[in-house]
Write a structure and sequence with these properties.
Layout lengths: L2 H18 L2 E2 L6 E2 L1 H29 L19 H18 L7 H30 L6 H8 L4 H25 L11
Antiparallel strand pairs: 1-2
Helix pairs in contact: 1-2, 2-3, 2-4, 2-6, 3-4, 4-5, 4-6
């Protein structure tokens, strides 16, 4: 990787960590801004560097640096919300994959890339939440209860955040393209 790519990967890993501490507490799952920075990583870095930025973030947390909402360390994989962190890795990759296939970067074209990434976060996060609560912590919980804790309270806010991300990106990308910074690191797919 080039120096600029390394800096961008580190920057978005750091921004995702900062997003963990901008939060509104919830009964099981807090509402944070990690998803926003994860989505921007996918949009602005593409699938490869977006993936690396989120892998770096999760890796730093797993080695013990307290960058997650409740700390860090290898035992964090047993925290019910760890599945959302795994979802962020896939989210940035999916968004980046879809961005690389875009011809135009309008609000709606970007939103069509961001919403599947959000879906991936929930498709990984909610089942992980359910499994850890039910089988590791032995809580009497149904999958619908897991949805009540980890999906229903957050989906509207996350869709609104997705719209904000798409709107901001639709305004920023043209400036980055004019300056020669956008897609210098994204390999266009035919």
């Amino acid at each position: 990787m080039k120096t600029r790519e390394l800096i961008l990967v580190g920057l978005f890993a750091a921004l995702t960590a900062i997003g963990a501490f901008i939060q509104i507490p919830g009964p099981v799952v807090p509402f944070t801004l990690q998803y926003v920075f994860c989505a921007f990583a996918g949009i602005l870095l593409g699938r490869r560097l977006g993936l690396y930025s989120q892998l770096l973030y999760v890796g730093i947390g797993l080695i013990g640096v307290p960058v997650f909402t409740k700390g860090g360390g290898p035992t964090y994989v047993l925290i019910p919300t760890f599945g959302y962190l795994l979802g962020f890795i896939l989210c940035a990759t999916v968004i980046g994959f879809l961005i690389e296939r875009q011809e135009k970067y309008t609000f709606f074209s970007l939103l069509k890339c961001v919403l599947p990434g959000l879906g991936v976060v929930y498709m990984v996060g909610v089942p992980y939440l359910y499994v850890i609560l039910k089988y590791y912590l032995s809580k009497p919980i149904s999958f619908n209860n897991a949805m009540q804790f980890g999906f229903y309270p957050f989906i509207i806010q996350d869709i609104v955040l997705s719209c904000i991300v798409a709107l901001v990106a639709s305004r920023v990308i043209p400036s980055l393209k004019r300056a020669g910074y956008f897609q210098a690191h994204i390999k266009k797919v035919a």
